[in-house]
Amino acid sequence: MPCRSDFSHANDDEFQLPQARIECWQGFVFRNPDINADPLSEFLQVLPRHLDGYQLDRCFKAPHIHKVVACNWKVALEAFMESYHVIATHPQLLTFMGDANAQYDILSDHVSRSITANASHSPHIAPPPEQQVMKA
């Protein structure tokens, strides 16, 4: 603390920043206020193995769009899981989205994944004519 003599009343224990556990993975910085928490690698469990080939540390975000939505976070998340609601809200996508063939996996306590077939028509509709597929 510069000019310590001017702050003789300041107790270091009361004015220091709280300690936190900081770890990095694939360019992301994780802060855990519990300095005694298990290592990040134990929390991530199987996730690194599934994302190994993506070089996330070399990715960047070009535009940033921020929107506050007054809802439970699960509602907002599921709103962008197209296969979950496409048949009711975006039927025009059914010609190239295999919505009913989506797969949702719980890989560990903290890791889940969804896989949706694209460039594949939905089983809820008749397949498009072969000529239409060839033109696409």
Which segments are poorly predicted (pLDDT under 50) over 5 or more consecutive residues? none
The total count of strands amounts to 4
Helix content estimate: 25-40%
Question: Could you report the average pLDDT, rounded to the nearest whole number?
Answer: 86
What structural class results from the helix and strand content?
alpha+beta
Number of discrete helical segments: 6
Specify the biggest β-sheet: 2 strands, antiparallel
Q: Could you tell me the strand content as a percent range?
A: 15-25%
Instruction: Describe the strand arrangement of the main beta sheet, using strand numbers.
Output: 1-2
CA-CA gap between termini: 67 Å
Shape: elongated
Rg over CA atoms, rounded to whole Å, is 24 Å
Q: Give the helices and strands as they follow along the chain.
A: HEEHHHHEEH
Write a brief structural summary:
Helix content is 26%, strand content 20%.
How is this fold's topology laid out?
Blueprint (H helix, E strand, L loop, with lengths): L11 H4 L5 E5 L2 E5 L7 H5 L2 H5 L21 H7 L2 H8 L7 E10 L5 E7 L11 H6 L1
Structure report:
The protein is of the alpha+beta class. The chain is built from 6 helices and 4 strands. Strand 3 and strand 4 form a beta hairpin. It is elongated, with a radius of gyration of 24 Å. The model has no long low-confidence stretch (mean pLDDT 86).
Characteristic key phrases:
6 helices; 4 strands; alpha+beta; 20% strand; two-stranded antiparallel ribbon; two-stranded antiparallel sheet; 136 residues
